[in-house]
Design goal:
The protein has about 350 residues and is an alpha/beta fold. The chain has 11 helices and 12 strands. α5 links the parallel β5 and β6. The chain starts with a strand and ends in a 9-residue tail after the last helix. The structure holds nicotinamide-adenine-dinucleotide (NAD). The site of nicotinamide-adenine-dinucleotide (NAD) has 31 residues, from α1, β2, α4, β5 and β7.
Amino acid sequence: MKKYLITGGAGFIGSNFIHYMLDKYNDIFIVNLDKLTYAGNLLNLQDIKNNKNYKFIKGDICDSKLTDKLFAQYDFDYVVNFAAESHVDRSIESANSFFETNVMGTLNLIQTAMKHWKNPDDSFKSGRKYLQISTDEVYGSLDLDSKTKFSENTKIDPHSPYSSSKASADLLVKSFFDTYKMPINITRCSNNYGPYQFPEKLIPLMFSKCIKKEQLPVYGDGKNVRDWIYVLDHCRAIDLVLHKGKVGEIYNVGGDSEVPNIDLVKKIIQYLSSYDKNINEKLITYVKDRKGHDRRYAIDFSKIKDNLGFCPTHDFDTSLKMTLDWYLNNKDWLEKIESGEYQNAYKA
Ligand SMILES: NC(=O)c1ccc[n+]([C@@H]2O[C@H](COP(=O)([O-])OP(=O)(O)OC[C@H]3O[C@@H](n4cnc5c(N)ncnc54)[C@H](O)[C@@H]3O)[C@@H](O)[C@H]2O)c1
């Protein structure tokens, strides 16, 4: 039975990944280490909390005593590090926790893995891998009319405190391969959407405001472009890289769906207007642009496609509707976040 340490598994992508893995494999054991910051939500994992192949541990990836104890106890085969402070706007307000978790937490995790995975002759126990979940935001920004997309060889040029903390972690993880030949991979994915996303992020935020008929704040001229990927396509890519990725390599993951923010907001309005005719474009309000707002992200994912056979399978328009349906059918999930009740889901 392979043992996985999944960090940040109570967040959006991590909880989807845990569901994906437990649905796909019977012969794995997952330890989910999550600090339960405001973004961690155990309601995301309510249905599997008693699964015999799963254990939740509340804790911080910066806590070396705890990570050391967990490695000694479970002898993990794989580490997938999702744990992060992940919201750009919050990083602009205050960057400290971003560098503590995203950089120092990553350093602690990879050092602990190295300590437990290294043989006396400096080689590594076979079959182990550390996977760092990173973001396309480390590459910076593209012009709207640029013909090029971000490839793995694009220069790292992060602009926000969030993306610079993620880029720092990437360089750190890569250095453990370059220096020690530690078995690592890094994935850099574009914007994810799907169930269980914390409602500070664009799609659930717009959903939540639409159903309350509140103003829909759109940054700047609304023409900033993001490449969207359905979260389960991302999970599939992570599974592939973890098990088939060449050690030491970085893989971009994209959804092949570039959409300007304003078009996305209009798609959400159009779909939800069939439930309530008071949801309309008059709710849109343009607000002062985000500081240092990247104009466009576009991902060239030909490396993972050619080498590992990955292609996103979820069409954007269809899966966006599916996602909105999920939020419509799970309004109590959203309400429990908005009231703060979700934080009572943890019982020590
Ligand atoms: N959401 C996206 O579109 C996207 C795109 C590309 C990459 N990523 C990356 O994927 C990862 C997950 O993103 P997400 O959107 O699920 O984030 P999220 O904010 O929804 O979840 C982050 C999780 O990490 C936990 N956490 C935070 N600090 C911790 C610490 N010190 N120790 C242990 N747990 C801690 C939180 O409690 C939360 O459960 C992040 O590393 C992010 O940079 C996200």
